[in-house]
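Notebook p. 47: complex prediction with adenosine-5'-diphosphate.
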Amino acid sequence: MLSVRDLAKRFGEIRAVDGISFDVQDGEIFGLLGPNGAGKTTTISMISGVLAPDGGQVLVDGQDVWARPKQVKRLLGVVPQEIAVYEDLTARDNLVFWASLYGLRGAQRRAAIDRALERVGLADRAADRVRTFSGGMKRRLNLSMGLIHEPKFLLLDEPTVGIDPQARLAILEIVREVAASGTTVLYTTHYMDEAEKLCDRVAIIDHGRILATGTLDELTRLAGEGELLRLTGSFTADALRERLGALDGVEPRRLADGFALLARRPDGPGLAQLLPRLLDAEAGVDDVAIQRPSLEAVFIALTGRALRD
Ligand SMILES: Nc1ncnc2c1ncn2[C@@H]1O[C@H](COP(=O)(O)OP(=O)(O)O)[C@@H](O)[C@H]1O
Ligand SMILES: [Mg+2]
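Predicted complex, C-alpha cells below:
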C-alpha cells in the first residue's frame, strides 16, 4: 500500500499541496484528477522522493520515502509528465542507460529491456532513433522506462497529454495491462474521461486540496444526481407519462413517442426496484440504457466550476 499523510508543499505564497491524504491499495488503479495547477505533479514529485515535503509523510509498504529512499525507490516506477528521453539515441539505448541506473547489467538487463519494449509495443522499433518517433511512441517509451525494474508501484503523471486520441487509447490499454499484471498504479490526469474509464478509485484535487475520494459510484452520488435512464420502445409519450406518475423517484427530462430520458433521484428507490417496473411488458419499453452522472458533474458540484476552466 502507498499511503500519503497530510502531505504539504509551498512555493513562496502558493500552497501547491495543502495537506493531502490518501491510500492507494495494492492492485488498484488510483486516479488523482484535477485541473492544471491543482498540485498533481508536486504530489508525484514528493512521493517519488525528488521534492522534499514541508510537512506530512509518504509511506510505501510502510516505509518512509525520506527515511529509506534507497529501499523505497526500488519499489517505485516513475513516469514523469515531461518526456525524459534522448532523441539522438535509439529506443534500446535509452533503456540501456535507464536500466544501468538501476544496476541492471548483461543478460539480465537485455531481458528487462526486451520485456519493457514488448509491454509498450515498441519491440520492433528498438533500433530506431527516438527522433523518428511519433508523440505517442515517445510517450510509450517514456512509460517503458518506469517499468524497467518491474516496480511494485507505478506513478504516471499525465501520460497522455499532447498526443492524438488513438495514441491515448494505446497508453490507457498499456496501463490496464500493467495493472492486470499486479502492479499498483497511481495515475494523474486532468481528463475526467480517463479517470472514469481507467481508475478503480479517484481523488479529486483542486488548489492543493483533495475535495473527495471514492469509486466512481461514490463520487457521482456526491453530485446529488442519480443515473440517467434512456428508454426506447414502442410506448407513446402520454402512456409513459401516465406510468411514470405512479413511479416514485424518477423525473422525466425528455419524453417523446418511443424515446424518454429519465433522471433517477438518488434519494428514491434504487435501480433494482425501478427497472422491473419500467420494463414491464405492458409498458412498451424495449430497452433501458443506464448512464451514470459524470465526474464533470461531481467537479462542478464540489467547486462550482467546470474542470476544463
Ligand atoms: N517549482 C515551482 N516553483 C513555484 N511554483 C511552483 C513550482 N512547481 C509548481 N508550482 C506551482 O504549484 C502549483 C501546483 O503545480 P503542479 O503540482 O505542477 O500542478 P499540476 O501538476 O496539477 O498541474 C501551481 O500553482 C504551480 O504554478
Ligand atoms: Mg502536472
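Notes: Residues 165-180 form the longest helix (16 residues). The chain has eleven helices and 14 strands.
Next step: compare against the earlier run before touching the bench.
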